[in-house]
Amino acid sequence: MEWLVIIVTVVVLWVASLFKILHESLSASQVAVLNDGGVFCKRNVLLVIAHPDDESMFFTPTINYLASRGCNLHILCMSTGNADGMGNVRKEELYLASVMLKVPQKQVKILDHPDLQDGFGKSWNSKLLSKIIKEEIANCDIDLVVTFDNYGVSGHCNHCDVHQGVRKLLQYTSHGEVEAWELISTNILRKYSGPVDIWLSILSAKFHLRGVVHCLLNEHPRRSLAAMAQHKSQWVWFRKLFVCFSSYTYVNCLKKIN
């Protein structure tokens, strides 16, 4: 009987959470984000990731939110994800996924630098990353950067290195020249709680100072699945489960990097 109560409670929470997401997607009441509380305006945004599929597995709530509000979104992927020798395939898959996410292919840049190769234990130099990001910011007139936090969701060293590269960039950038925001990593229970985590994310954002943390609900969760499905080389059973049960499919909390 107790197990039945638990199962019913979980199901009710999932349904309520999905309804909340659907309601927000149909409503124009969401507050403006990424602007320190001012009026939200169109921005030139650069999403900096480590591997093809990072954008679909972790950042789709952010991508969908910004795209729906007319932001000019660019993606800079620091490697082809060639750890298993499938770099060329994965590169093309990212282009296909970007189409599903409404990001023009010409605004997706994928590097294959000899010192930035995919793999656990392969550390990337923060100065090199900073230099590359700075060049992309200048070339695309970027005024806002989004990337991983210092844990990088999964703890992958390449994710963490990308974060350090952005931090290094900020050290040598004039205040106000460019904003940078990081995707907050959560503990394992929240990470695999699916849409239920939206409630904790909303509360977490409210308890931070205004303009420091923003909670973005995924207005098009089906688009997330469609985008990840384009990464066919990675679309194995456990990643299908991850996309369905990961809280990052349904919500992103972004924190301003100071």
Automatic annotation (TrEMBL):
<dbReference type="InterPro" id="IPR003737">
    <property type="entry name" value="GlcNAc_PI_deacetylase-related"/>
</dbReference>
<comment type="similarity">
    <text>Belongs to the PIGL family.</text>
</comment>
<dbReference type="GO" id="GO:0005783">
    <property type="term" value="C:endoplasmic reticulum"/>
</dbReference>
<protein>
    <recommendedName>
        <fullName>N-acetylglucosaminylphosphatidylinositol deacetylase</fullName>
        <ecNumber>3.5.1.89</ecNumber>
    </recommendedName>
</protein>
<dbReference type="InterPro" id="IPR024078">
    <property type="entry name" value="LmbE-like_dom_sf"/>
</dbReference>
<dbReference type="GO" id="GO:0016020">
    <property type="term" value="C:membrane"/>
</dbReference>
<dbReference type="Pfam" id="PF02585">
    <property type="entry name" value="PIG-L"/>
</dbReference>
<dbReference type="GO" id="GO:0006506">
    <property type="term" value="P:GPI anchor biosynthetic process"/>
</dbReference>
<dbReference type="GO" id="GO:0000225">
    <property type="term" value="F:N-acetylglucosaminylphosphatidylinositol deacetylase activity"/>
</dbReference>
